[in-house]
Amino acid sequence: MVTRLNPYLTFNGEARQAMEFYKEVFGGSLTLNSYGDFGQADAPNADKIMHGMLETTSGFTLMGADNPPGMESAPGNPFSVSLSGDDDAELRGYWEKLSENGSVSVPLEKQMWGDEFGMCTDRFGTPWMVNIGRTES
């Protein structure tokens, strides 16, 4: 197995909805395991997500979970999830879905380095950066 770097997102009770949303955006295979699935069926958080993993045909891996009881959650703290490449249509499609019902801090447009770049925060509070690289003609 190849070593991979991927974001792991923590949610405050919305992991199921968020991970299903990301599956709608990126496609792929989503596995969700609740606390109840791991022997805590009687716990108040039994239906919350202990571990979720989305693997896409594009090679993306995104993991996420609900905060365990007693741990503080602060969505959007010092991280962003970055998507970059040169497939204009694919990246614009992701941008449109991620920014819908979220907030855009940098519109997706041509930047001084020549690429198109934008920053948004999705409706779950996760910050995203999208960079569409120039293709050599």
UniProtKB/TrEMBL annotation:
Any one Pfam family match given in the protein's UniProt record, by short name: Glyoxalase
Highest taxon above the source species: Bacteria
Gene3D superfamilies, per database record: 2,3-Dihydroxybiphenyl 1,2-Dioxygenase, domain 1
Residues of the signal peptide: none
Domain Glyoxalase/fosfomycin resistance/dioxygenase: 5-129
Membrane-spanning ranges: none
Region of interest: Disordered: 61-81
SUPFAM superfamilies tied to this protein: Glyoxalase/Bleomycin resistance protein/Dihydroxybiphenyl dioxygenase
Record's protein name: VOC family protein
Organism name: Streptomyces koelreuteriae
